[in-house]
């Protein structure tokens, strides 16, 4: 028999050797996940110290070895555990969805700073953006689109789990959307093809490629979204998109070119350009 602490220390060394920067933290997170999975108990976090000091059952040790091997192969922790915390909820995550990231919470925060009666989330993935918004605004109409049937299934499951009512539609951007919204949000694929090789293995090799890159300059999604936004926004409605840190100028120009007014750039906690929003003129379509 061996203790949980000894098991975690061995796992930490294994992960560090595989190039995992967060080896110590990941070793403990996965140990905690396996404990809960094998025992079937919702163990409180404060009990971790007790389990680290205790001998580990063979079933836990075996399941932990599998989880650590997956992480050493650079599979993201969220895909191994099947969960990722975002905004105020835990979301189910699979290899068919982009892993919700903390910086995307700025898009949710910006959206919730506005008044709106309907919202469209394009390229929804896990549904984290739309579901987080709707959870704060009960009664608001919410629609989400994605090209991936598997992603839409995950998003629908997350909405049900969190208790949010929304409509999920398979659509290539606006192709299946025939109404106007007060707010449109999106975190589209914005990584240029020549940037893909520089991504961490957890992203490049494990997350859905179509959610990461347009196989071009990283702006194709913004061209489609900005071009279609005026005909799908109510007068005075807003388009809000997450961007890569070097894309603020280009995306702002695309919004202006489509007729949206006063593009505004918001920075994330690291001081990087992260969100651009523009408004549909009140007179447009009135």
From TrEMBL:
NCBIfam families associated with the record: hemK_fam, RF_mod_PrmC
Swiss-Prot/TrEMBL catalytic activity: L-glutaminyl-[peptide chain release factor] + S-adenosyl-L-methionine = N(5)-methyl-L-glutaminyl-[peptide chain release factor] + S-adenosyl-L-homocysteine + H(+)
Keywords on record: Methyltransferase, S-adenosyl-L-methionine, Transferase
Residue ranges annotated for the Release factor glutamine methyltransferase N-terminal domain, each copy included: 7-82
Location of the Methyltransferase small domain: 104-192
Family of the protein in this entry: Belongs to the protein N5-glutamine methyltransferase family. PrmC subfamily.
EC number in record: 2.1.1.297
Top class in the EC scheme: transferase
Pfam families, A to Z: MTS, PrmC_N
Binding site for substrate: 187-190
Protein's UniProt name: Release factor glutamine methyltransferase
Domain of life: Bacteria
Chain positions recorded as S-adenosyl-L-methionine binding sites: 123-127, 146, 173, 187
């Amino acid at each position: 028999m061996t203790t949980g602490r000894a098991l975690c220390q061995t796992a930490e060394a294994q992960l560090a050797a595989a190039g995992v920067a967060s080896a110590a933290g990941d070793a403990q997170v996965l140990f905690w996940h396996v404990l809960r999975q094998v025992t079937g108990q919702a163990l409180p976090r404060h009990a971790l110290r007790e389990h680290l000091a205790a001998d580990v059952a063979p079933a836990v040790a075996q399941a932990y070895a599998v989880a650590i091997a997956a992480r050493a192969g650079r599979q993201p922790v969220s895909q191994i555990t099947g969960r990722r915390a975002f905004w105020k909820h835990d979301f189910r995550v699979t290899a068919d969805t982009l892993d919700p990231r903390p910086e995307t919470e700025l898009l949710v925060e910006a959206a919730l700073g506005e008044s709106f009666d309907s919202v469209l989330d394009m390229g929804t993935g896990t549904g984290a953006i739309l579901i987080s918004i709707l959870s704060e605004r009960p009664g608001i109409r919410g629609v989400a689109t994605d090209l991936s049937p598997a992603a839409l299934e995950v998003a629908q499951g997350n909405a049900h789990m969190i208790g949010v009512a929304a409509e999920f539609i398979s659509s290539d951007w606006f192709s299946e959307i025939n109404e106007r919204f007060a707010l449109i949000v999106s975190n589209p694929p914005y990584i240029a093809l020549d940037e893909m090789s520089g991504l961490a293995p957890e992203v490049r090799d494990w997350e859905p490629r179509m959610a990461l890159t347009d196989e071009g300059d990283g702006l194709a999604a913004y061209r489609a979204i900005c071009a279609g936004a005026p005909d799908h926004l109510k007068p005075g409605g807003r388009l809000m998109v997450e961007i890569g840190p070097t894309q603020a100028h280009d995306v702002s120009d695309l919004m202006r070119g489509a007729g949206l007014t006063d593009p505004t750039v918001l920075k994330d906690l690291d001081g990087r350009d992260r969100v651009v929003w523009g408004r549909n003129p009140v007179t447009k379509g009135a």
